[in-house]
Amino acid sequence: MMTTINNPQSIADIIPDLPPSQEAIRCRAFHPSGEWTPVHDLNQSPLAYFENNARQHPHQLALIMPDREYRYGELDASANQLAHEILHRFGDQPGAVALLLNRLDQLAIAALAVWKTHKYIAELSPAEPFARLEAMLGDAQAQGLITDIENWEVSQALLITHSRMQLINIDLLPENNTSDKPIVLCPEGNISKLAYTSGSTGQPKGILQTHKQRVHDVAASNEFFHIGHRDRFLYALLGLEFFASIITGATMVAFDLKKQPISELAHCLLKHRVTSARLKPTVFRRMLDSLGADVCFSDLRLLHMVGETIHTQDALLFQRYCARNSIMVGTYGTSETQNCRYFLLAHGQQLQQDRFPAGFAKAGIKLSLIDEDGNEVKVGQTGEIVITTRYLALGYLRQPELTAQKFKALSADENEMAYYTGDLGRLDNEGCLFIIGRKDSRLKIHGNTIEPVEVENALMGMGLFKEVAVVGHIDDQLVNILVAYVVCLQPTPPPANIIREVLSQALPAHMIPTRYEFLPSLPQLSNGKVNRRALTQLSESRPELTMPYLAPRDAIEQALVMIWQNILKVSPIGIHDHFLDLGGDSIRATQVIVRVAQQFDCEISPQTLLAQPTIADMAQVITQQQIKQTDQQTLERWLDEIEQL
User: CA–CA separation, 92 vs 228, rounded Å?
Assistant: First the structure.
């Protein structure tokens, strides 16, 4: 599975240049087999690599789902079948095809199929509000939408405003479709994906990512981590692990964090002998909350911590639960640049400060720190991070002004562009990068980049507030939460659950504030702008809700109230109060589930908590499980007595 070297000029773009301490760790980052798959041809697309793997190794395991497995040949055949249907329904011209799918195997098949038709994907999340899905589809001008039975009604509703768009139900493909590779005569484009993120104008913006970016990202990552076909990646989204797998011929192990209990994640890693996982630090911590002290992830050689600040406690947990030959990886990157810095931590190492460094440069990517005048700052000084490379996104769809502002040509190389990240950083004497914060007010909440102005616009659009300011807080568990400080037009503040309900029609869940603080006025700076640093008040009182307070009625409800109050830092909590209205989120849901499992010896999934999100609901679930356990124990005792007769 070794690739040939077809582009010698680009090889320098994938060989890292690290200080001795980091190079020593990198040099031992091999799978126990010692095999790996260098990626030297940066001109091939990820699809070309995948099809080559499917042709040469059709029986190699490609994807493990909870209910089935796919070999490379099977995955390729399924993608070919869907590609023929795309060409039949949408035509053979390049353009965007939107994906609105729940299952990870269908997401992988659909992405491969779209690329086989020389089109690019616009991935939509079923969790997005309907209005936001409409806006993104309109912006993408998608030729069609690939969906499933579960999202069929929503997809048909989208046709009302996008009447020219056609639908494909991936669950109901025609049986007579061929699985042969389709032949498309139009030239292959470089655009891989239209990725939507929160926009500074109050509307989501679409980033045009390229195949060239993805191949370079995998090639450079391989030089760091020596990935090969014997590796097994935890697959949760169409990110680096997906592309690294299909390019190198490795295996993906699917795990849906939105649907499967966090307690099952550790079992998944152990059962399927996952060798490389990318996890948010909060997910990693919550997963370990449910484990015993004797558990060791002996096969997990690479633990990538992404999307959030990594703290000393995460490094200590890694060293406790992962094998001594494993490596913890901190990364820095953006949707526009992909990963561009790495920091490697081995067993026995200690961090010099509480926060994990962003690390050292990946080859082919230059990093500069500049001041307000555009001059490079000295070592140890803070400046805006500017990334210069030939492997950037193409810009923002239909936003030429924003593209020109963020993407600039700074060198004679016409293929090389600089991207102004807006992040603030500092370099030490070795060239190690430390992230200081944001130049603007953009926030990072649970791994999602959020423009506060988009949330503030949605709040002001309710017509209930005179002033609003949305800021980020780091709570007592080192978790970023979104807090809205508001000045009401009327003396009586609206109930928190009503605010959440209205916002949910316009914003995805991760952009809805966790807490709402009502103030007579917002603090101001001398220039009249809001003094966001002065917004530190965070009440621990029960928010105003439409549901009246009702105290616990029995021992189970009382115990659950204590668990919720301890985790949510809100008191008192009524038995009919909604978990999300009290400031609950996915992280705190995981904490509640772990605590409930420890105290009541019963398993509750995140889906159950969100579907039955009150103390009364949870108490009923626990009672029912206890009855079943008692009945089972009684039955087993009777069977034992019968056998002894």
Answer: 34
